[in-house]
Amino acid sequence: MGLASRLFTDPPDTRLDACLVDDAAHIFQGADGSHVACIQIALSLLSDGQMFLVIDGKFGAATAQAVFDFKDARGILAPGEVTPNRIVGKRTIQALDEEMEVFENQSSAMDEFVSSTVLGAPHDHSLCPTSGFSAPGSGGRVNHFGTPVNPLPGRRINISGEHETDYLGFEDFTTGAVLGPPRPLTSTIADHSVANICLRDSPFSMNGSADAARDEIVRIAAPGCRFTFCGDVPQFRPQLLSLGTVHQHMVLPDPRFTNPATATAEVLVITIP
Q1: Which band of pLDDT confidence, cut at 50, 70 and 90, is reported for residue 105?
Q2: What ranges do the domains of the chain cover?
Q3: How is domain 110-272 classified at the CATH fold level?
Q4: In three state form, how does the secondary structure of the chain look?
Q5: Three-state helix/strand/coil letters over 50-85
Q6: Lower CB density within 10 Å: C or N end of the chain?
Q7: How do residues 111-120 score in pLDDT, each as one tens digit?
Q8: How far apart are CA 149 and CA 110, in angstroms?
């Protein structure tokens, strides 16, 4: 059996594949590349919020320590060892992959933070707009799938929003020149003043740069800000995970499509420190 998690297979990486089956392909301190970045992401996500590595693709001392902690917690020892080494070998990459696959597919308490339906949080949907959006929901009105349902007190910003969160007091903004209706720029928002930020179905980008989008979100986020992203998580995973601690991760059947059983949306809820 090969690797199964989306993190390690989308896109595929021959170095991770080889690590699973070949002792000569072990990954250790000094390695660098996208395969190391995937390992850093897995170690961070599987730490229960106890640790977050810089996702830079460089297997340095911090990554080596995280590998040790992961192996120590699971009793992964090489023959003759009494304490784990700091190498990602066959058993370690297998354990990371298996736990990531579970993590990617967990969906407990899905509606605690994010709407898994087009209906959103309980509200008078008859007051929601009937135009100005790309995908209608119930009754031809704006749909609320993948948007926050239980926001924190404080200012609420929807980046590239189409009024789908107006009923919860979110304001629609944009980080730069994008398609869609005119919206004010996030550059007009004061530093560290926003308690809730959400982004759905739009690129995690600011003028073509995911790194710039991350920096802008960090700039406007108040301490403890909740960031909700529903969209192409794999494409923007390093920047998304560098925002803070993943509070919830879900892959939901997407009711906006004809066959939601085969159409899914990936959601991350992140607490920004």
Answers
A1: low
A2: 6-105, 110-272
A3: Rossmann fold (3.40.50)
A4: CCCCCHHHHCCECHHHHHHHHCHHHCECCCCECHHHHHHHHHHHHCCCCCCCCCCCCECCHHHHHHHHHHHHHHCCCCCCCCCCCCCECHHHHHHHHHHHHHHHHCCCCHHHCECCCCCCCCCCHHHCCCCCCCCECHHHCECCCCCECCCCCCCEEEECCCCCCHHHCCEEEECCCCCCCCCCEHHHCCCCCEEEEEEECCCCCECCEHHHHHHHHHHHEEEEEEEEEEECHHHHHHHHHCCCEEEEEEEEECCCCCCCCCCEEEEEEEEEC
A5: CCCCCCCCECCHHHHHHHHHHHHHHCCCCCCCCCCC
A6: N
A7: 678 988 787 8
A8: 10
Single pTM value for the model? 0.64
Retrieve residue 54's tokens. 């810089």
Under 8 Å between Cβ of 162 and 132 = yes
* Residue 121 near residue 164 (C-beta atoms within 8 A): no
Q: Which long-range contacts (CB under 8 A, 24 or more apart) does 176-183 make?
A: 176/205, 176/206, 176/207, 177/207, 178/202, 180/134, 181/132
- Amino acid occupying residue 217: I
Residue 104 has pLDDT above 70, yes or no: no
User: What is the tens place of the pLDDT at every residue in 119-176?
Assistant: 788 777 778 888 777 767 667 788 888 999 989 999 999 999 989 999 999 999 999 8
**Two structure tokens written together for 120:** 């959103």
**Inter-CA distances, 100 with 19, 43, 88, 105, Å:** 16, 9, 15, 9
| Per-residue pLDDT tens over the stretch 33-79 | 989 988 988 898 787 666 767 778 899 999 999 999 999 999 999 99
